[in-house]
Amino acid sequence: MKKQISKFDIKPLIVFCCFVVLLLAFVAPKYSLVGKWSVLNLDGTASGELIDFKKDNTYTVALPDGNIGERGNYLLKDSVFSLKNIKDVCGKDYWGKYKLVFYGNDSVHLALISDTCTERRTDIVGYNPGLKRIVAK
């Protein structure tokens, strides 16, 4: 007695799987800025400055000697990164806007959208080629 194996048409399953894969290929991954980042030198090495982006949308910049160089607030919506210094560097409640591009989960690059604060703009896009996430060991 032979068992009859039902013939299943696999073509619709393959088409469905390809459709799902194509849909997922166009969904941008969600990266987070929260955590500690190293400011890079122009040659890609660590400068010694560290930025700690916190969940409450505040940030702290630690200088190579360990002192706090800057504090402030930030917002990240889509790829627009906005920040405001706590110190009166450019005026109270003065926000700068930058385009933030993630390169994987561990690297970001900032490009100017609008910021008339020369000191901050020079610090962010003039000398800073990017940030590299510090991985906790």
Structure write-up:
This protein is of the alpha+beta class and 137 residues long. The chain has one domain: Lipocalin (Beta Barrel). The protein is built from two helices and eight strands; from the N terminus they run αβββββββαβ. The chain has an eight-stranded antiparallel beta barrel. The N and C termini lie far apart (63 Å).
Structure characteristics:
137 residues; alpha+beta; Lipocalin; 2 helices
Q: How far apart, in Å, are the first and last alpha carbons?
A: 63 Å
Q: Pick out the low-confidence regions.
A: none
Q: Class by helix and strand content?
A: alpha+beta
Indicate the CATH architecture: Beta Barrel
**How many discrete structural domains?**
1
CATH topology: Lipocalin
Strand order across the biggest sheet?
1-2-3-4-5-6-7-8
Query: Taking Cα atoms only, what radius of gyration do you get, to the nearest Å?
Result: 23 Å
> How many alpha or pi helices?
2
CATH class: Mainly Beta
Helix content: 10-25%
Main beta sheet:
8 strands, antiparallel, barrel
- Please tell me the overall pLDDT: 83
Order of helices and strands: HEEEEEEEHE
Which overall shape is indicated by the principal axes computed on the Cα atoms?
elongated
Strand content: 35-45%
For the secondary structure, the number of strands is 8
Summarize the helices and strands and which ones pair or pack.
Layout: H1 11-25, E1 35-40, E2 46-53, E3 58-62, E4 68-77, E5 80-85, E6 96-103, E7 107-114, H2 118-126, E8 131-133
Antiparallel strand pairs: 1-2, 1-8, 2-3, 3-4, 4-5, 5-6, 6-7, 7-8
